Amino acid sequence: MEVLSTPGLATVQDFGRFGSLRFGVGTAGAMDHLALAAGNLLLGNEDGAAAIEVPLFPFKARFDADNSFALTGGGCGARLGGRALLPWSVHAARAGEELLLSPAPGVPGSRAYLALPGGVDVPEVLGSRSTQLRGVFGGQCGRALQAGDKLAARGASPGLAGYGLEPPGVALPLLADGTPGVRVIPAAEYERFTEASRAAFWAGEWKITAQSDRYGYRLAGAALAFEAPVEMLSHGIVPGVIQVPPNGQPIIQMRDAQPSGGYPKFGTVIEADLWRLAQAPAGSRIRFVETDWNRALAAAEALRGWLEEVGRLCDLIRCSALGRRP
Amino acid sequence: MTPAISLLGTTALLFEAPGHCELASQQRIWALARVAERWPEVREAVPGMNNLMLVFAAPPRDLAGFEARLRAAWDGAEPLPLEGRVVELPVTYGGETGPHLQDVLDHTGLCLDELVERHTAPLYPVFALGSHPGYCYLGGMDARLATPRRAVPVLRIPGGAVSIGGAQTGVSASDGPSGWNTIGHTSIRFFDPGRSPPALLAPGDSIRFRVQAVTR
Fold this sequence. Notes:
Chain A has helices spanning 33-43, 168-171, 195-203, 274-278, 293-321; strands at residues 2-5, 11-13, 51-54, 59-62, 67-73, 76-80, 83-84, 89-93, 98-103, 112-115, 175-176, 179-186, 206-212, 216-220, 235-236, 241-243, 251-253, 260-261, 265-269, 285-290.
């Protein structure tokens, strides 16, 4: 397929690059692992296949051959050759047909994922196809997609389309006092914030500011204050870590986060809820819910369970349609 | 004093050694990394400055047992003396490529010549890599140069920027955001994803800064 137009920041991503943190290389990877995994399951791809992450719309692409694709995630409306498409589904495109992802206020989410059979065919660099924007490697030439980029699928079309699944936002909702919630485990410097700041963090609503991207989400809310100034040595961090610079406004590290940092850490949004943040648009509000190790492991287990069920149903559909036994 | 162990969600665990960040302690961190990276729960062991992040391949069910094993491994860790090569970097201090030099002078109360002399004097051992591809955290900075990180991170610092953050100094390996104070500029390629290993320097190597120019 060929990219016809994009306002920018669309990238090729898989689950991310592991094993190179000690060289200073952050993992990158899809902001919403659940939408990526679901897209791959819908197509019968291997677990870690790469897809296109689209955070800004309109995004327009043309299929140069008959092929199927899966569209997951949210934040946009979708049309193929003028026909409206159901989200979280597999569709069949004919050669020459144009796919248009357009802004759609009211559609939940903020990032769409376009999965191709076998995954997007870009070279593996240091064990991953994810785009490393800071390092300028991986994905499509280490950069965001541009008009004129041609992307091939690594596998053949499964020859089956027209099925989909219930979005995880519906299947696995998490609200805190009516506001989208994410669960947080307190981190090393938690006790060094004032008691009032700790209370305000859990009680307040936090706005995701416009200065939020794949590197981090800058939040606006009650300023968080330390009992005493905290100056720290550089240490490893991961996506989800909530850093608090001296101005007191938290920054949640996202998938393009540096592998290390030096600001005090209030807590970490658990891995099992990062997909929720990925789909929370700039300008929207979230709340934090305190959790612990065991409950966070249970949350990860719940996601695995949902994905296993999605995988089982997709296998059933493919096998019954193609006349095979599962 | 005992080490501090804390959680980074369920993704990783942070081990912070007690005491100051100095070479002998850092050599024990390197030794601990070699031990812990072989554990089945650990995907990668990532040294920081006097600390070690363990990224989980699978989060251990028995967290207390895992932490006890880590503490025991630290108690048994002997300093691992890595001695690599020395790389000399010519630096232009101040001017347009050192926009925060004055802030460092103001904070430290040093004059420009004193700052340059103190910054170029030591041999800086590479303690760890982090931040961005190929970036080296260095030990050995003169404590008189210590300057707090900036209140608001700068959104774009160019590759080659020589900077000071807290008690540390370093050189940006590529363009990107930073909370550190940029005092000068140098030119070198720290990272090539096609090379094996991809990073130019590794823990145990050393950097020496040489004065190329001082812009007043």
